[in-house]
Specification:
By secondary structure, this protein is an alpha/beta fold. Helices cover 48% and strands 11% of the residues. It has a single domain, classed as Rossmann fold. The longest helix is centred in the middle third of the chain and has 25 residues, at 74-98. Residues 23, 50-51, 65, 81, 107, 111-112, 115-116, 165, 167-168, 239 line the site of 3'-azido-3'-deoxythymidine-5'-monophosphate.
Length: 239
Protein backbone atom coordinates (compact mmCIF):
# COMPACT_ATOMS: atom_id res chain seq x y z
CA UNK A 1 0.00 0.00 0.00
CA UNK A 2 1.13 3.55 -0.76
CA UNK A 3 2.84 5.50 1.99
CA UNK A 4 3.54 9.24 2.01
CA UNK A 5 7.30 9.48 1.89
CA UNK A 6 7.85 12.76 0.08
CA UNK A 7 10.17 12.44 -2.88
CA UNK A 8 10.31 8.63 -2.71
CA UNK A 9 6.94 7.25 -3.69
CA UNK A 10 5.90 7.60 -7.31
CA UNK A 11 2.63 5.78 -6.97
CA UNK A 12 -0.65 6.99 -5.58
CA UNK A 13 -1.95 3.46 -5.03
CA UNK A 14 -4.14 3.44 -1.95
CA UNK A 15 -3.61 7.11 -1.12
CA UNK A 16 -6.28 8.63 1.11
CA UNK A 17 -6.91 12.36 0.56
CA UNK A 18 -9.58 14.28 2.46
CA UNK A 19 -11.22 17.63 1.73
CA UNK A 20 -12.04 19.64 4.83
CA UNK A 21 -13.19 23.13 5.67
CA UNK A 22 -16.01 25.45 6.63
CA UNK A 23 -19.07 26.01 4.49
CA UNK A 24 -18.91 27.38 0.96
CA UNK A 25 -15.29 26.49 0.18
CA UNK A 26 -16.19 24.37 -2.85
CA UNK A 27 -15.00 20.99 -1.49
CA UNK A 28 -17.36 18.89 -3.59
CA UNK A 29 -16.45 20.61 -6.84
CA UNK A 30 -12.73 20.47 -6.06
CA UNK A 31 -12.90 16.78 -5.20
CA UNK A 32 -14.50 16.16 -8.59
CA UNK A 33 -11.84 18.20 -10.39
CA UNK A 34 -9.01 16.36 -8.61
CA UNK A 35 -10.66 13.04 -9.47
CA UNK A 36 -10.71 13.99 -13.16
CA UNK A 37 -7.09 15.09 -12.98
CA UNK A 38 -5.94 11.89 -11.28
CA UNK A 39 -7.93 9.61 -13.55
CA UNK A 40 -6.47 11.32 -16.61
CA UNK A 41 -3.07 10.51 -15.18
CA UNK A 42 -4.11 6.85 -14.90
CA UNK A 43 -4.93 6.59 -11.19
CA UNK A 44 -8.18 4.79 -10.31
CA UNK A 45 -10.16 7.00 -7.94
CA UNK A 46 -12.96 6.45 -5.47
CA UNK A 47 -14.92 9.54 -4.39
CA UNK A 48 -16.97 9.47 -1.26
CA UNK A 49 -18.30 11.73 1.49
CA UNK A 50 -19.16 12.04 5.17
CA UNK A 51 -21.55 11.76 6.75
CA UNK A 52 -22.61 9.20 4.16
CA UNK A 53 -20.89 6.96 1.64
CA UNK A 54 -22.74 3.80 2.71
CA UNK A 55 -26.39 2.80 3.03
CA UNK A 56 -26.48 3.33 6.77
CA UNK A 57 -24.26 6.41 6.51
CA UNK A 58 -26.63 8.11 4.08
CA UNK A 59 -29.57 7.26 6.36
CA UNK A 60 -27.69 8.82 9.30
CA UNK A 61 -26.91 11.86 7.11
CA UNK A 62 -30.61 12.37 6.42
CA UNK A 63 -31.40 12.33 10.16
CA UNK A 64 -28.51 14.68 11.00
CA UNK A 65 -28.88 17.25 8.25
CA UNK A 66 -32.36 17.13 6.78
CA UNK A 67 -34.58 16.78 9.84
CA UNK A 68 -35.16 20.28 11.19
CA UNK A 69 -37.98 18.91 13.35
CA UNK A 70 -36.02 16.64 15.73
CA UNK A 71 -33.85 17.77 18.65
CA UNK A 72 -30.26 16.50 18.40
CA UNK A 73 -27.91 17.03 21.35
CA UNK A 74 -24.28 17.81 20.54
CA UNK A 75 -23.18 14.44 21.98
CA UNK A 76 -25.75 12.62 19.85
CA UNK A 77 -24.56 14.52 16.79
CA UNK A 78 -20.94 13.51 17.49
CA UNK A 79 -21.84 9.86 18.01
CA UNK A 80 -23.98 9.68 14.86
CA UNK A 81 -21.28 11.34 12.72
CA UNK A 82 -18.79 8.87 14.16
CA UNK A 83 -21.09 5.86 13.76
CA UNK A 84 -21.50 6.67 10.07
CA UNK A 85 -17.69 6.87 9.85
CA UNK A 86 -17.17 3.44 11.43
CA UNK A 87 -19.26 1.85 8.67
CA UNK A 88 -17.66 4.01 5.97
CA UNK A 89 -14.12 3.01 6.93
CA UNK A 90 -14.93 -0.72 6.92
CA UNK A 91 -17.32 -0.91 3.96
CA UNK A 92 -15.78 1.63 1.58
CA UNK A 93 -12.50 3.33 2.50
CA UNK A 94 -10.33 0.42 3.64
CA UNK A 95 -11.40 -1.94 0.79
CA UNK A 96 -10.85 0.78 -1.85
CA UNK A 97 -7.37 1.53 -0.53
CA UNK A 98 -6.53 -2.16 -0.40
CA UNK A 99 -7.60 -2.40 -4.06
CA UNK A 100 -5.12 0.39 -4.90
CA UNK A 101 -7.62 3.15 -5.56
CA UNK A 102 -7.00 6.75 -4.57
CA UNK A 103 -9.73 7.61 -2.07
CA UNK A 104 -10.97 11.22 -2.18
CA UNK A 105 -13.24 11.88 0.78
CA UNK A 106 -15.37 14.98 1.34
CA UNK A 107 -14.89 15.36 5.14
CA UNK A 108 -13.54 12.87 7.70
CA UNK A 109 -12.43 12.82 11.36
CA UNK A 110 -11.35 16.47 11.43
CA UNK A 111 -14.90 17.60 10.66
CA UNK A 112 -15.90 16.09 14.00
CA UNK A 113 -13.05 17.89 15.79
CA UNK A 114 -13.92 21.18 14.07
CA UNK A 115 -17.75 21.10 14.23
CA UNK A 116 -18.52 19.07 17.36
CA UNK A 117 -15.28 20.04 19.16
CA UNK A 118 -14.64 23.63 18.07
CA UNK A 119 -18.19 24.56 17.09
CA UNK A 120 -20.23 22.78 19.79
CA UNK A 121 -17.54 22.80 22.48
CA UNK A 122 -17.38 19.04 23.11
CA UNK A 123 -14.31 17.63 24.83
CA UNK A 124 -11.51 16.88 22.36
CA UNK A 125 -10.23 13.84 24.27
CA UNK A 126 -13.66 12.22 24.30
CA UNK A 127 -13.97 12.87 20.56
CA UNK A 128 -10.50 11.42 19.93
CA UNK A 129 -11.41 8.24 21.84
CA UNK A 130 -14.48 7.56 19.73
CA UNK A 131 -12.56 8.42 16.54
CA UNK A 132 -9.95 5.76 17.36
CA UNK A 133 -12.74 3.23 17.89
CA UNK A 134 -14.48 4.19 14.64
CA UNK A 135 -11.47 4.38 12.34
CA UNK A 136 -9.34 1.54 13.71
CA UNK A 137 -6.27 3.61 12.85
CA UNK A 138 -7.21 4.45 9.24
CA UNK A 139 -5.79 7.94 8.68
CA UNK A 140 -5.64 10.28 5.68
CA UNK A 141 -2.29 10.74 3.95
CA UNK A 142 -3.15 14.32 3.03
CA UNK A 143 -5.73 16.75 4.44
CA UNK A 144 -6.72 19.67 2.22
CA UNK A 145 -8.22 22.56 4.18
CA UNK A 146 -10.24 24.77 1.83
CA UNK A 147 -10.19 27.89 3.93
CA UNK A 148 -12.16 31.10 3.49
CA UNK A 149 -13.77 33.76 5.70
CA UNK A 150 -16.96 32.46 7.25
CA UNK A 151 -19.08 35.37 6.01
CA UNK A 152 -18.09 34.66 2.41
CA UNK A 153 -18.65 30.92 2.77
CA UNK A 154 -22.12 31.42 4.23
CA UNK A 155 -22.92 34.01 1.56
CA UNK A 156 -22.11 31.41 -1.09
CA UNK A 157 -24.21 28.79 0.69
CA UNK A 158 -27.15 31.15 1.07
CA UNK A 159 -27.13 31.77 -2.67
CA UNK A 160 -28.63 28.27 -2.91
CA UNK A 161 -31.19 28.25 -0.06
CA UNK A 162 -32.81 24.97 -1.18
CA UNK A 163 -29.66 23.08 -0.21
CA UNK A 164 -29.15 24.65 3.24
CA UNK A 165 -29.00 21.99 5.95
CA UNK A 166 -29.59 22.01 9.73
CA UNK A 167 -25.94 22.84 10.53
CA UNK A 168 -25.67 25.56 7.87
CA UNK A 169 -28.39 27.40 9.81
CA UNK A 170 -26.29 27.60 12.99
CA UNK A 171 -25.24 31.07 14.10
CA UNK A 172 -22.26 32.93 12.63
CA UNK A 173 -20.22 32.54 15.85
CA UNK A 174 -20.57 28.74 15.59
CA UNK A 175 -19.16 28.77 12.06
CA UNK A 176 -16.36 31.08 13.17
CA UNK A 177 -15.37 28.61 15.91
CA UNK A 178 -15.39 25.84 13.30
CA UNK A 179 -13.02 27.77 11.04
CA UNK A 180 -10.69 28.61 13.93
CA UNK A 181 -10.64 24.95 15.00
CA UNK A 182 -9.66 23.89 11.48
CA UNK A 183 -6.84 26.43 11.36
CA UNK A 184 -5.58 25.18 14.75
CA UNK A 185 -5.69 21.57 13.57
CA UNK A 186 -3.72 22.49 10.43
CA UNK A 187 -1.13 24.45 12.40
CA UNK A 188 -0.69 21.48 14.73
CA UNK A 189 0.19 19.00 11.97
CA UNK A 190 1.63 20.96 9.04
CA UNK A 191 3.12 17.86 7.37
CA UNK A 192 -0.29 16.31 6.86
CA UNK A 193 -2.36 19.43 6.19
CA UNK A 194 -2.25 21.76 3.20
CA UNK A 195 -4.18 25.00 3.69
CA UNK A 196 -5.69 26.15 0.39
CA UNK A 197 -7.06 29.67 -0.10
CA UNK A 198 -10.60 28.91 -1.27
CA UNK A 199 -11.40 32.53 -2.17
CA UNK A 200 -9.86 32.24 -5.63
CA UNK A 201 -11.57 31.13 -8.81
CA UNK A 202 -12.40 27.40 -9.02
CA UNK A 203 -9.54 26.94 -11.53
CA UNK A 204 -7.04 28.71 -9.26
CA UNK A 205 -8.11 26.59 -6.29
CA UNK A 206 -7.85 23.44 -8.42
CA UNK A 207 -4.29 24.36 -9.44
CA UNK A 208 -3.32 24.93 -5.81
CA UNK A 209 -4.73 21.53 -4.92
CA UNK A 210 -2.85 19.78 -7.73
CA UNK A 211 0.35 21.44 -6.55
CA UNK A 212 -0.28 20.37 -2.95
CA UNK A 213 -0.96 16.78 -3.98
CA UNK A 214 2.19 16.67 -6.13
CA UNK A 215 4.42 18.34 -3.55
CA UNK A 216 3.12 16.70 -0.40
CA UNK A 217 2.85 13.21 -1.78
CA UNK A 218 6.13 13.33 -3.68
CA UNK A 219 4.41 12.81 -6.98
CA UNK A 220 6.08 15.22 -9.36
CA UNK A 221 4.89 14.41 -12.85
CA UNK A 222 2.16 12.04 -11.71
CA UNK A 223 -0.57 14.58 -12.35
CA UNK A 224 -0.86 16.30 -15.71
CA UNK A 225 0.07 19.95 -15.43
CA UNK A 226 -1.06 22.49 -16.35
CA UNK A 227 -4.64 21.38 -15.87
CA UNK A 228 -7.05 21.48 -18.75
CA UNK A 229 -9.59 24.26 -18.33
CA UNK A 230 -12.81 23.06 -16.77
CA UNK A 231 -16.12 24.62 -17.46
CA UNK A 232 -17.56 25.73 -14.16
CA UNK A 233 -20.80 27.22 -15.30
CA UNK A 234 -22.44 27.93 -11.97
CA UNK A 235 -19.56 29.32 -9.90
CA UNK A 236 -18.23 27.83 -6.70
CA UNK A 237 -19.79 24.63 -5.45
CA UNK A 238 -22.13 24.89 -2.55
CA UNK A 239 -20.14 23.00 0.05
P1 LIG B 1 -21.49 19.07 3.52
O1 LIG B 1 -21.85 17.84 2.77
O2 LIG B 1 -22.07 20.29 2.93
O3 LIG B 1 -20.05 19.16 3.81
O4 LIG B 1 -22.30 19.00 4.90
C1 LIG B 1 -22.10 18.11 5.88
C2 LIG B 1 -22.35 18.82 7.19
O5 LIG B 1 -22.06 17.92 8.23
C3 LIG B 1 -21.41 20.01 7.38
N1 LIG B 1 -22.09 21.13 7.92
N2 LIG B 1 -22.82 21.90 7.43
N3 LIG B 1 -23.47 22.77 7.26
C4 LIG B 1 -20.44 19.56 8.44
C5 LIG B 1 -21.20 18.52 9.16
N4 LIG B 1 -20.33 17.51 9.77
C6 LIG B 1 -20.11 17.57 11.14
O6 LIG B 1 -20.64 18.44 11.83
N5 LIG B 1 -19.31 16.61 11.71
C7 LIG B 1 -18.74 15.60 10.99
O7 LIG B 1 -18.01 14.75 11.55
C8 LIG B 1 -18.98 15.56 9.56
C9 LIG B 1 -18.38 14.47 8.73
C10 LIG B 1 -19.78 16.53 9.01
Amino acid sequence: MWRSIAGVSNSLNGAFIVFEGPEGGGKSLQAQLLAVSLERAGHPVLMTREPGGTGVGEAIRAVLLERGDVAIAAETEALLMTAARAQHVREVIAPARAAGRVVLCDRFVDSTYAYQGGGRGLDGEALATIQRFATAGVEPDLKLLLDLPVEEGLRRRQADPETLNRIDRDELAFHQRVREAYLRLARGDPDRWAVIDALGSPDAVARAIDTAVRDRLGLHGAIQAPRAPYSVASGPASS
